[in-house]
Amino acid sequence: MTYLDRTVPESSVEIAFTRHAAEFAPRADRWDETATGPRAKTLRMREHEIVFEEGDAADRLYEIADGAVMLYKMLPDGRRQVLEILGQGDLFGLSGGDAHDCTAETLSASGFRVVDRRDAEASVAGQQKISLCLRDRLTFLHEHAVLLGRKSACERVATFLLWMALGRARRAGGAPATNTAVIRLAMTRQEIADHLGLTIETVSRVISDIRRRGIVVADGQDRLRVPDVRLLARMSSVH
Amino acid sequence: MTYLDRTVPESSVEIAFTRHAAEFAPRADRWDETATGPRAKTLRMREHEIVFEEGDAADRLYEIADGAVMLYKMLPDGRRQVLEILGQGDLFGLSGGDAHDCTAETLSASGFRVVDRRDAEASVAGQQKISLCLRDRLTFLHEHAVLLGRKSACERVATFLLWMALGRARRAGGAPATNTAVIRLAMTRQEIADHLGLTIETVSRVISDIRRRGIVVADGQDRLRVPDVRLLARMSSVH
DNA sequence: CGAATAGTTGATGTATCTCAAGCAGGGTGG
DNA sequence: CCACCCTGCTTGAGATACATCAACTATTCG
Fold it and tell me: From the Cβ of A154, is strand C under 7 Å away?
């Protein structure tokens, strides 16, 4: 019995392309021209489709209306590092230069609001929103560098699960009222491993171990229940 | 003979505090009130002084006029991760929330331009400068996540040396005209190790190895000469 | 000159990776 | 409807890159 399967929502029907078809089709073909406002387009994509690839022109900004996206980079020999996991409300596509510095791929079926980069940067409000998002991202990447550079496999997995358990709530700031949480992973072991700088097998072993110790409990197919989030926090060496 | 010693420029004489004195003195005492423009102050600090600590109120922005700074985070048990190495022209102090998410410490004697965060964010030009800097930082942290998550000790050190060899030039974009470079490290082995997610001993061993293979040559006390930067690039698995 | 600090090098240990086999669930088609 | 296959996951055994521990050397500074 797999206790942590990736979700297959398959709720989006707008786009008929398969993943591979989308990769070979001109990008513009995938725009849904439904305007949500001046100069804003919406875009729907299935699970595991590529939004843009490293090196593509970085002329558009994406805001996640629903769904989830991962950003990653590849080394020439195939090693992959998943840099960030993004969810509802997050902005992506803001690279340093003219080209994207990483690839963006959906984790589940997702909807995006797409705006031209120049338009977004034109208004003060847009600038502020971008800045806010960049700062959040920076803070996360700092925390993640600590994880990758200095934490053990066990601490890495615990930190990741804790992060998933707190979810978007962590942004709101207030500590959650309850000590229990339910996690929906929506990621494969490979994706988790590539995010945490580990191998598939190590991730699997650590999660098995954490389950054996009762810190998380399998709860249906793609869900983990965390009876006491504080136990996870203790394992993860967050201060 | 140590071939890679940290620089001790000791060119700044404005501040009389020792490192420890500065740590215990109220932060405001260290401001040099010489105004360089409306609401801009300058600040000089010695080598290895702390500019701010994780948790301090993030109400000021710092721009490096000269010198170098590292940002780092600590785990409760003393493990440290050096997140970024900053130099002339770089901005720092822009954390996500109201408090700094990391500590900033000078690597060498440095001068800063200090502005109130609200003032900097008020102008469009300021916003743009901040955004530009944040984006550069993001790109670097992405690259560094690949290093920490997926590269071997050898690749990490080579990547780091390559980064130091290219120096600020990497921002200009154009490939350097020459294949040779000289690196001034201005960092201790411990700082390098904490940046690369390694131990002091591993860094030392790898550098010794790279020297033995002739890829870098000791050149005075704190300098490394790189006869062919392309050899470093090959070692570092950059694409 | 001698103590203190930073760096190097060697011997040994171990956390994680690698390789390999087996298992579970979900979909497909006979 | 059930057997089969495919994919993703788990588990074990063995290998290894890097950490740890420890001794030594070089450099700086008083």
Answer: yes
Using CA coordinates, name the residue in chain B closest to A198: B149
The protein residue nearest nucleotide D10, judged by CA to C1', is A204
In this structure, what DSSP letter does residue A57 have? B
Is A146 close to B97, i.e. CB distance below 8 A? no
The structural domains of chain B, ordered by start, are 19-138 (2.60.120.10), 151-236 (1.10.10.10)
Q: How far is A232 from chain B (nearest CA, A)?
A: 16
Question: What is the rounded CA–CA span in Å between residue A54 and residue A134?
Answer: 18
Please choose, from the candidates B189, B191, B207, the residue with its C-alpha nearest in 3D space to the C-alpha of residue B153.
Answer: B207
Closest-CA distance, A72 to chain B, in angstroms, reads: 9
- Looking at residue A28, the DSSP 8-state letter turns out to be G
| Residue written as token pair 């580990």 | A198
Say what the alpha-carbon torsion angle A175, A178, A184, A189 is, to the nearest 10 degrees: 70
One digit per residue, the tens of pLDDT, for chain B of length 239 reads 333 333 333 333 233 333 333 333 334 444 444 444 456 789 999 999 999 999 999 999 999 999 999 999 999 999 999 999 999 999 999 887 899 999 999 999 999 999 999 898 888 888 888 999 999 999 999 999 999 999 999 999 999 999 999 876 555 555 666 788 999 988 999 999 999 999 999 999 999 999 999 999 998 768 899 999 999 999 998 87
Tell the residue number behind the tokens 């029907």, with chain if given.
A13
Q: Which residues of B166-196 are buried (b: 16+ CB within 10 A; e: fewer)?
A: beeeeeeeeeeeeeebebbbbbbbebbbbbb
* C-beta separation of A87 from A95 below 8 A: no
How far in angstroms lies nucleotide D1's C1' from the CA of residue A68?
Answer: 38
